[in-house]
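Lecture notes, continued. The same structure-token format from the folding unit now serves as the input rather than the output. Read the line below as a description of shape only.
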């Protein structure tokens, strides 16, 4: 199959088939509350994987007690075969073409764990085929892709969980949110996401594509370019492909979306719980890139190009500020009128946290923030999968739904656009457009390579 454009008629047919298959097995009619009930091998849901790289491994390790892998799509033969051997007892069906996974009637849920430029198209096609999806963060490469995903999610009613597992880390991030929700910080004045600096690299030479990798399909909707790779002094592969795709705007947003998707999400969650109703209206800052940019595009094509260092200030009409920066301790700092807390994956600190010793949170405070979903597993990734599977059974919006995710990912994408043009931007959070800057506004979307368009 050469043409990757979505064929609408085909998918409408599959949508009906998919839903019918799920219902006839009685799957959704059983209203049990906990994903834990899927632990018996006969009860396990079946999952089809799209992308079998680094994070797919962690995800399947974390959810293996509930899932059976029946199909794996990866454009790298070696990767799909190794994954099958290690995680599916060699029993999964393997393919290079993810559409074959989506089309299968015996797949209950789809896991999308491809690089960011390959998220939107399979997520939309999976929803149209009647499948529920756990897609890795950041959900999209652009702001307009987010509009499309939300529209299709609403129309199809599919359950889509985004892989921002910090939302299911109960003892740290969720507890921090409960402190906010209980008013222990008062009105929030500033939230700050420290997300780390990104690497630069020397010139990466055009290289022979590794055997078994279909690089043209890996590129998919992105512009056609040569495969580049260099093995550094530590034996690490630096390339425009596996893992280091993160440091190329063609396939990702760099740190701004890689870690931004995690910590800006927590910042935005805190603001919402604190009663912030209006979205931000401007962003300004400074960013350093490892290459020169002209008209928003990197001039040199042979090395990483995303922002290495940056500091952005996002402003809200009521005076609240969000800071996104590369320096200072990785984590989220939330400052309110009555105090401030700092939270990351290892600690939750600050006076309001110490105060809990003599003035504890109400018993249900954390559960309330977690929207009263079951909270069994004390491991963020496992709990996040548990939440997804629970919501699949109960037909509910999961804790990291596409709507809340895009609200904050828009900010990360805006920071990237501002960085690429090296100028401040005005934002209309209602129409989700950049104001008074046609050139920057044209970066809300990106052209898809011919044959890889999303057709609606
Ligand atoms: N939630 C988290 O904490 C977390 C952590 C790491 C990565 N991620 C996200 O997961 C995604 C993948 O990251 P990674 O580090 O695993 O990358 P990776 O490069 O290790 O793996 C991606 C895999 O997708 C495959 N792939 C590419 N195009 C494909 C296609 N069209 N069909 C099928 N397979 C295709 C690649 O061959 C590769 O094996 C990224 O979006 C990343 O941001 C999330």
């Amino acid at each position: 199959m050469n043409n990757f454009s979505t064929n609408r008629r085909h998918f409408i047919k599959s949508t009906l088939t998919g839903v019918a298959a799920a219902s006839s097995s009685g799957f959704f009619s059983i209203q049990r509350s906990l994903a834990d009930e899927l632990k018996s091998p006969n009860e396990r849901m079946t999952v089809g994987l799209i992308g079998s790289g680094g994070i797919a491994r962690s995800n399947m390790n974390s959810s293996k007690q509930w899932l059976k892998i029946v199909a794996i799509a990866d454009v790298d033969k070696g990767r799909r075969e190794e994954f099958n051997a290690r995680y599916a007892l060699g029993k999964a069906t393997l393919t290079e073409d993810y559409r074959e996974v989506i089309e299968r009637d015996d797949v209950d849920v789809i896991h999308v764990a491809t690089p960011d430029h390959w998220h939107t198209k399979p997520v939309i096609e999976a929803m149209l085929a009647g499948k529920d999806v756990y897609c890795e963060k950041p959900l999209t490469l652009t702001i307009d892709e987010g509009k499309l995903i939300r529209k299709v999610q609403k129309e199809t009613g599919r359950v889509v969980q985004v892989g921002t597992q910090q939302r299911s880390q109960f003892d740290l991030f969720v507890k921090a949110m409960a402190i906010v929700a209980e008013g222990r910080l008062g009105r929030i004045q500033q939230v700050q996401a420290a997300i780390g600096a990104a690497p630069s690299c020397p010139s990466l030479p055009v290289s022979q594509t590794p055997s078994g990798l279909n690089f043209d399909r890996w590129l998919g909707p992105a512009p056609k370019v040569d495969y580049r790779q260099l093995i550094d002094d530590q034996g690490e592969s630096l390339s425009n492909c596996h893992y280091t795709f993160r440091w190329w705007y063609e396939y990702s947003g760099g740190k701004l979306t890689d870690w931004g998707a995690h910590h800006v999400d927590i910042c935005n969650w805190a603001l919402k719980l604190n009663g912030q109703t209006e979205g931000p209206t401007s962003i300004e800052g400074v960013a350093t890139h490892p290459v020169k940019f002209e008209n928003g595009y990197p001039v040199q094509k042979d090395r990483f190009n995303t922002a290495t260092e940056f500091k952005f200030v996002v402003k809200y009409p009521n005076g609240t500020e969000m800071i996104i920066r590369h320096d200072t301790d990785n984590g989220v700092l939330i400052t309110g009128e009555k105090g401030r807390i700092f939270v990351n994956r290892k600690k939750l600190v600050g006076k309001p946290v110490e105060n809990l010793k003599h003035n504890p949170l109400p018993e249900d405070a954390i559960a309330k923030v977690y929207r009263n979903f079951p909270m069994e597993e004390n491991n963020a990734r496992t709990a996040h999968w548990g939440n997804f599977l629970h919501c699949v059974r109960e037909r509910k919006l999961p804790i990291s739904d596409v709507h809340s995710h895009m609200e904050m990912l828009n900010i990360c994408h805006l920071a990237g656009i501002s960085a690429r043009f090296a100028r401040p931007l005005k934002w209309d959070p209602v129409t989700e457009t950049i104001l008074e800057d046609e050139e920057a506004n044209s970066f809300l979307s990106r052209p898809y390579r011919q044959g890889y368009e999303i057709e609606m």
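Point for the exam: Residues 1-34 have pLDDT under 50 and may be disordered.
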